Amino acid sequence: MEFIWIGFAFICGLLTKLVSLPPSIGYLAAGFILLFLGYEADSTITVLADIGITLMLFTIGLKLNIKDLIKPEVWLGSLSHSVLWLVVGIVLLKGIALVAIPFVSDLSMETSALIVFALSFSSTVCVVKLMEEHGEMRTRHGKLAIGILVMQDVIAVIFLVVATGKIPSPWAALLLLFIPLKPLINKGIDKAGHGELIPLMGFFITFGAYELFEFVHIKGDLGALLAGMYLASHVKASEITKSLLSFKDLFLIGFFLSIGFTALPTLEMFAIASILTLLLPVKFLLFFFILVKLNLRGRTAFLSALALSNFSEFGLIIAALSSKAGWLSSEWLVILSLAVSLSFIITNVLYNFSHDYFAKNKEKFKRFESKKRLKEDNFVQPDEAPIAIVGMGRVGMGAYKALNAQLGEQVWGLDTDKDKVKWLNENDVNAYLGDAEDADFWESIDLSKIDLILLALPAVQDIMNITAQIQRTNYQGKIAAIARYDDERIALEEFGVDKVFNFYTEAGVGFAEESMNLLKRV
Questions:
Q1: CA dist., res. 447 & res. 431, Å (int)
Q2: In this structure, are residues 411 and 400 in contact, taking their beta carbons and an 8 Å threshold?
Q3: What is d(CA 387, CA 400) in angstroms, rounded to the nearest whole number?
Q4: What gap in Å lies between CA 340 and CA 31, rounded to an integer?
Q5: 8 A C-beta contact, residue 63 and residue 292
Q6: Where do the domains of the chain lie, and which CATH numbers do they carry?
Q7: Could you tell me the pTM of the whole model?
Q8: What is the pLDDT of residues 207-221, one digit of tens each?
Q9: Which residues face 452 on adjacent strands?
Q10: Which among 277, 280, 272 is positioned nearest to 332, based on CA atoms?
């Protein structure tokens, strides 16, 4: 059985990738096809799905800063959307019922409210995969979307606690003892080194937190999320995330397959699920207008709202619980599963064109912007610094030090990570906070003062996105970038990057040159 679903998942994932769609859509299709052919999900797929979601929540936590969650645009934006969605959604669902559509026309007010509540959540799996595939996890809109998702997850967990009557144990208060133990835990992480102990430690912390929370009658997934946030400030947080990335992606295949295995739908159910997806534009509009009213820029609000315009796996968990309790029929569980799957496809397809669409229609969205700008959306360009380095990781820092040593104070760096920029500034590095994938950013600075832009980013898609934004501003200077492989170098040069350095080749050449200098000194 394992060979069959692995093979189907691979084939369907490959086919969707060939047509420029995320493989996750192929995994969903594989589940439905296998169910149609008579196969059923076994315990292996269920276990993989559970592990994948738990690992995903842990890695999300590793990238979160608690300060980001207490921002008004996150907590107020999330709560405002939930309330407005419930009101508008119930009205629209009751409006659909007037047409006497099967399964909808006989819904009570309580059941309608439950369905709309289940559809109020956006998919953590879908959005995180979307942001990772586009390299936008640390962008302004990426962090905003993730923050809102976390708030929604908290709401979902509260509902599950109330609905199941699962009251936390009095022993739950003992979890607070881990707060003063953080220096000791950090020391243990430091001693793990950089090898195979890093992913093993990630698994241990993830599922250790899961079991601890379950033991005190709190949802284990919340424990995994909080454990990630607990370690987010550690210097190895990024390394732990990277070490778990492949494992998380592999296990999440089980989650997407499990959705497809939910039930074999009828055409009638598929039609109702399709009607429910017509509510997605409402979800988008509510998010967009709430976010711009909270003083976010049009582009940030647009991209965040579009990424969040889908239905969630948490909605399916709520629906499954409601079905077991007799509050919702089993047919509605299938309908909601289809609606969630369709929303994944719609979001993934539309988001591929989001940047270009906004660039062509930005004036239509920007007219809704508030005149007031949030502090982190204001950018003050450094004077007399004609060289900009985008991405202050190891490569970016190496380039900064080399150029700064030769040219003096003519170099500045740009990064989307606020904590990293703060640390760099404290260490006398001329670094600034900004999102290079934001067209507004490049339009807000004087590019005539910049002669060279170095894109020191690991993802080719990120480099292409930024290059496209720069090209739209009629920038007259030069653009340089890095690549890991020869095919990436060729693709970037064809895209318009003036000079592309092969990361591995150039590192080898530099190593050889420095080594030869040692011989000359003998």
A1: 17
A2: yes
A3: 9
A4: 14
A5: no
A6: 2-366 (1.20.1530.20), 379-521 (3.40.50.720)
A7: 0.74
A8: 999 998 888 888 787
A9: 387, 478
A10: 272
